[in-house]
Amino acid sequence: MRPTDQIYKSLINMAPYIVDYKITEDFIAGSLPQDKTVFAWQANNYNTNVFHKKAYIYREWGRFFKIHEIIRAGSDYQDVVVMQKPLD
Q1: d(Cα 18, Cα 51) in Å, to the nearest integer?
Q2: What residues form DSSP beta bridges with 84?
Q3: Whether the Cβ atoms of residue 76 and residue 1 lie closer than 8 Å to each other
């Protein structure tokens, strides 16, 4: 994530409400702590952001779909996963 991305700003702003991780600029700049990392908070409304490492996508999602490509920042700041359902 880049500091100019809305998701970056949201995580920094919501840091006091995210109890599972101590959100700091250094934390965001580092590697994800898990293959599937979930940031959830409760402040005015409930919100959740989920981040997946590539290995997780290939291992877990690949059981159900053929993973053709992962396009970094293919939709604004979000990566795009191009998948195909196997033909039966």
Answers
A1: 15
A2: 66
A3: no
Q: Which two tokens stand for residue 5?
A: 């991305």
Residue type, 49: N
Q: Please report which helix (H) or strand (E) contains residue 59, including its range.
A: helix 54-60
Report pTM. Answer: 0.80
DSSP 3-state of 63: helix
In the chain, which stretches have pLDDT less than 70?
44-46
CB 27 within 8 A of CB 39: no
Element (H, E) at 8: helix 6-14
CA–CA distance, 26 with 73 (Å, rounded to integer): 21
